[in-house]
Amino acid sequence: MASGNVILNEIEAPLIAKKAKPGQFVILKAGERGERIPLTMAEADPERGTITVIYKVVGKSTELFKNLREGDSYQDAVGPLGQPTHLERVGNVTCVGGGTGVAVLYPITRGLKGAGNRVISIIGARTADRIILEEEMKSVSDELFVCTDDGSRGHHGFVTEILKKVLEEETLNLAVAVGPVLMMKLVSEMTRPYDVKTIVSLNPIMIDGTGMCGGCRVLVDGENKFACVDGPEFDGHKVDFDQLIQRLGAYESEERESSMAHRCRLDR
Amino acid sequence: MIGDGGSSYRRSSVRSDFVFELGRSMAEKEDVTEKWARIGMPEQEPDKRRENFEEVPLGYTPEMAVKEASRCLQCKSPSCVEGCPVEIDIPAFVQLIKEEKFDEAIKKIWEKNRLPAVCGRVCPQETQCEGRCVLGKKGRPIAIGNLERFAADLARREGIEDVSPKAEPSGKRVAIVGSGPAGLTVAADLLARGHQVTIFEALHKPGGVLVYGIPEFRLPKKIVADEIESLEKQGAEIMCNTVVGRTITIDELFDQGYDAIFVGVGAGLPRFMNIPGENLVGILSANEYLTRANLMTAYRFPEYDTPIPRGRNVVVIGAGNVAMDSARTAVRLGAETVRIVYRRSREEMPARAAEIHHAEEEGVELLLLTSPIRFLGDEEGRVAGMECIKMELGEPDASGRRRPIPIEGSEFEIVCDLVIIAIGTGANPLLTRSTEGLELNRWGYIEADPETGETSIEGVWAGGDIVTGSATVIEAMGAGRRAARSIHEHLTREGRSPESCGV
Q: Which chain positions lie within coiled-coil regions (chain A) (predicted)?
């Protein structure tokens, strides 16, 4: 399924599907020369033996993923990796998602709802057509707020503006935020004064996903953690987001070069 | 671990004191005392090889091999064999080369070693077989590694295959976790004894450290691929992209009917310095740097999609073989300066002398008795420099090496835009933590019987770096060999037929 530059792939991977839990990720590689790309799963169906990922096309690798047609294969898929979300009944929970982060947030929200929590969800995107899984999120939330940057759907503005209101009006026991790093940072800063425990799901640069390369190290409470084996979820109040943002930009110029080279070949 | 020769701050094994014949060309004049003159292996010239990732030593010609083999004294009780972790009958294969029976020579090696093309290249012969050679006492030891490589390469070129008779199928199935040197050896040995093997590999390509760690210029990936293909031809099944401990557990492997399991997952958890600024962009573990270069072929970016940072002024921290591999990779990626920063002196460097020599030939500088204190970054969070302190050596520590002590007030800064940390690895807990009842030592490595590889779980064996910590390819292979023997005994033990197990 493809809508603009947001793509959904349902991938046959029975071994992974059998094991996958909300919050865990897989690493996909399109072809022989491809990169290993970590993506947190949106769905795992052990019956069908499939897993689902939803991602935004941002560079050459996701461009290659996008070009896969129904029936094509990823050359490599490995998982499930990382620690699953800790799903338990804590009371009132808010689930905040931005962009394709909502895909990751959905199974977590469903799990938290299933555990008996009251769930207030807030999802956002730049424009109405980039809002994903609205119906699904609605079905697993007690309340759902939708925000768009341009006001084309729901609240005109950022998810944090709604979150602020929710924090003022409700007594929350847990917040979960998945989306752009800046959004997760802002959510964490906002919940801190209310002392609401906040879980964020990180997606740093990594290669193997098994603790071997150390590329995904994140400073959490002043200590290095590997997102691939210790995460990908961490306490948002303890994550050094500014460092994470810098590290995510490590290969910006190479990414541009790679995309350019790829497009040039396509144009030929 | 990455590489084949121990991490920087760990290995304390003997260092041989003889001089290498490195870099000598075929044109080299023969020594008057011919018996003592070792035939050097031709190599790519340093200036040329700085520009490519092709293999550095070029191999012996048959004439050179025969000549070198002729130097062997054929000792009655050969100490070289004692120095070999897999006990290759060295005098026998050397003699066969001398007699120009090259195909018989390789078969003699295969009796004990399934990966001779690999071992001939990456074994630390100077501390093993060659280190014990009697010739070494008066002159230079026989070039056993070069000869092993010669025989293996010739067999590859001429398509000589191992046709040693295989045992009758036993009907037993063994799961091997990890496709590095230990796992591959277990697979080869068990196949030869008639058992079925399935190798589970976490990465997308089999070979473990041989593919992700050791660079192409030291061990061409084609060689590893060929060895693995040959195992597959013999019936090994290889499941890549399978993380035991995540995708499937040890218990589930037993549920699937495997009669025994060998764990050879390597060490693989990179160590960092834990000093300020270490998370700046441009500071990578050697594991990451080498995996990008080797497994992902990032040195051919953008032809391959995975990028690798190309530093102008590169610093490699640590002085083991992994550090040398990293430094030499950086040279080939176009760095203007590449410096090895090591807190002790040249004497204590854990890398093989041959690797240090190769690195220096290629322009790598050694900044010895120097320890980093902190990394300095620019406004974008990229590494721009490193503050160091000078060290002096005090009394020997637990490792037997003299302890480095900082010299107060000797701090200085160096400019660098890429830092590779090669100070060793620890135990990767991914599999061990998910396996109940598996006893570990206090460093997190698996407790296994050094003779048999048996662990605290019945039916589970372990060997290689996940038992010993960072060691060498051949030591992992030796552990694999011993474990395979023990697994075979276990599987064929009387009264343990499939019926009596209720299978």
A: none
Pairing mode, if any, of strands B268-270 and B425-427? antiparallel
B304 inside 8 A of chain A by CB? yes
- On whether any CB of chain B is under 8 Å from the CB of A21, the answer is no
Co-location of A104 and A44 in the same domain = no
What's A216's domain CATH number? 3.40.50.80
Q: How far apart are CA B135 and CA B79, in angstroms?
A: 11
Given A62, A81, A100, the domain boundary residue is A81
Q: Are residues A70 and A148 in the same domain?
A: no
Question: Which residues span the domain enclosing A225?
Answer: 92-248
Helical (H) or strand (E) element with B229: helix B221-233
Distances from the Cα of B421 to the Cα of A155, B274, B284, B381, B482, angstroms: 48, 11, 6, 18, 33
- Interface mutation target, options B246, B275, B322, chain A, most CBs of A under 10 Å: B246
User: Is B284's CB within 8 Å of A207's CB?
Assistant: no
> Would you report the helix, strand and coil content of chain B in percent, each value rounded to 5?
35, 15, 50
**Residue of B259, B261, B255 lying closest to B200 (CA atoms):** B261
A18 and A99 co-located in one domain: no
Candidates A78, A207, A246; nearest CB to B292: A207
Q: Does the beta carbon of A248 lie under 8 angstroms from any beta carbon of chain B?
A: no
- Closest residue of chain A to B205, computed from CA coordinates: A76
A95 is in an annotated binding site: no
Q: Which of A34, A78, A251 sits opposite B307 (nearest CB)?
A: A251
Q: Do residues A231 and A219 lie in contact, with contact meaning Cβ atoms separated by under 8 Å?
A: no
User: What pLDDT band is residue B401 in, cutting at 50, 70 and 90?
Assistant: confident
Quote the pTM value: 0.90
> Nearest Cβ partner of B279 from A208, A213, A219?
A219
State the Cα–Cα distance between residues A145 and A7, nearest whole angstrom.
23
CA distance B17 to B396: 19
Residues 106-125, chain B, touching A (beta carbon < 8 A): none
CATH, residue A73? 2.40.30.10
Contacts of residue B285 in chain A, CB cutoff 8 Å? 213-215
> A78: which chain B residues are within 8 Å (Cβ-Cβ)?
202, 204, 241-243, 247
* CB-CB contact of A115 with A87 (8 Å): yes
- Assigned token pair, A12: 């046959």
Residue with tokens 């490792």: B399
- The answer to the question of residue A168 being in a domain is yes
Max Cα–Cα distance, chain B, nearest Å: 74
Question: How does pLDDT run across A21-66, given as a tens digit for each residue?
Answer: 999 999 999 999 999 999 999 999 999 999 999 988 888 888 888 8
The Cα A35–Cα B307 span in angstroms is 9
pLDDT at residue A173 greater than cutoff 90? yes
